[in-house]
Automatic annotation (TrEMBL):
Name of the protein this chain belongs to: 2-methoxy-6-polyprenyl-1,4-benzoquinol methylase, mitochondrial
Keyword Transferase: yes
Signal peptide interval: none
Naturally occurring in which organism (per UniProt): Haloferula sargassicola
Location of the Methyltransferase type domain: 71-166
InterPro entries linked: Methyltransf_11 (IPR013216), SAM-dependent_MTases_sf (IPR029063)
Domain of life: Bacteria
GO BP, sorted A to Z: methylation
C-alpha cells in the first residue's frame, strides 16, 4: 500500500483523470462485460445456493441499519446491489461503465427486481442529499486513484449508525487481495492494453489487503470494524461444481470488512 492513501492522491489531478478514462474504457468494453458476467469471479451469482450464502453474509454484515436504503458502488452487473434488493433494501447502484449497467438492468429484470441504476463516479457518487443505511462495494477500491478520499466520502453518505461493507477476496499467497487484475496479457477474451496495464502500477490500493481497509475505515471515524467470511459458500460452490461442471466456479475466498458510522 502506498503511504499517501489516507490523503488519497495517486498523482496530479490530470493524471488521475486520465487513469479513470483508461479504466472506464476498459470496463465498458463489450467483451470485458461479457467475460465478467460469465467469468469465475461472477458466475456463482447466477446460482441460487451461492446467492443464499452471500445474502446471509450481507445480512450479517448490515445487521440493524438506520434505514432500508442501500447504495452499491462500482456495481458492475449489479452483483451486490441485486442481493440488497432481494433482501428488501431500496437499492441504488452506480457504475461508470454504461455497458456494465445495461447488463445489470437486464439481470435485474430477469430476477424481477427493481433497482435504481445510475451512471457515475464511485469516488463522488451523484446522489445529491440522499443518505444510506448501508453502502457497499466489491472489487472497486483497487481501481480508484483516490481510495482514501473515496472511503471518507462514502462515510459522509451514510446515515448515523449506517454500515460500510467493503468486499474483497484472499487470493493465493503472495497475490493481491482486493484486486481482480492479472498484470499479464490474457490469452482469451478481452485483451489488456498496454495503457491499462501501465495504469495498474499507479494505483495506491492495487495490492491492498483486508487489514488496510480496516486502517482506513478507522481513520475515517468508523467503529465496530470487523472482518467476516461468507459462511456456507464453499459448500454451495461444491454443489454447483457437481451439478454444473461447465460453470467456471471461483476458488478465491471472499472477505467482508464492515464498519459502523
Ligand atoms: C471488478 S468489477 C466489479 C463489479 C461488481 N462490483 C462485482 O462485484 O461484480 C469493477 C467495477 O467497478 C467499476 N468502476 C471502477 N472504477 C469506477 C469508478 N471510479 N466509478 C464507477 N465505477 C467504477 C467498473 O466499471 C466495474 O464495473
Amino acid at each position: 500500500m502506498h503511504l499517501d492513501v489516507l490523503n488519497g492522491v495517486t498523482a496530479d489531478f490530470e493524471s488521475a483523470r486520465r487513469l479513470k478514462v483508461v479504466f472506464q474504457q476498459g470496463w465498458n468494453h463489450p467483451d470485458r462485460v461479457k467475460g465478467w458476467v460469465g467469468g469465475a469471479l461472477h458466475a456463482e451469482f447466477h446460482d441460487p445456493g451461492c446467492r443464499q450464502a452471500w445474502k446471509d453474509a450481507l445480512s450479517e454484515a448490515a445487521g440493524t441499519t438506520p434505514s432500508d436504503r442501500a447504495l452499491d458502488l462500482g456495481t458492475g452487473p449489479g452483483t451486490i446491489s441485486s442481493m440488497w434488493a432481494e433482501l428488501g433494501f431500496r437499492t441504488t447502484a452506480i457504475d461508470f461503465a454504461p455497458n456494465m449497467l445495461e447488463a445489470g438492468q437486464r439481470l435485474a429484470a430477469e430476477r424481477g427486481l427493481t433497482l435504481e441504476f445510475i451512471e457515475g463516479d464511485a469516488e463522488d457518487p451523484p446522489v445529491g442529499e440522499r443518505r444510506f443505511g448501508v453502502i457497499s462495494t466489491r472489487f472497486v477500491l483497487y481501481t480508484l486513484p483516490h481510495p482514501g478520499y473515496a472511503i471518507r466520502r462514502w462515510v459522509q453518505l451514510l446515515e448515523p449508525g449506517g454500515k460500510l461493507v467493503l468486499i474483497g477476496h484472499d487470493r493465493d499467497q503472495g497475490q493481491a487481495s482486493g484486486s481482480t487484475e492479472v498484470r499479464a496479457p490474457r490469452k482469451h477474451g478481452w485483451q489488456v492494453g498496454e495503457d491499462y496495464r501501465a495504469a495498474l502500477d499507479r494505483l495506491p490500493f492495487m495490492d491492498h489487503k483486508a487489514s488496510d481497509l480496516q486502517v482506513v475505515m478507522e481513520a475515517a471515524g468508523m467503529s465496530e470494524i470487523r472482518k467476516l467470511a461468507v459462511t456456507g459458500l464453499d459448500e454451495a460452490r461444491e454443489r454447483l461444481r457437481e451439478d454444473q461442471p461447465e460453470v467456471p466456479v471461483g476458488s478465491t475466498t471472499p472477505y467482508i470488512v464492515v464498519g459502523r458510522k
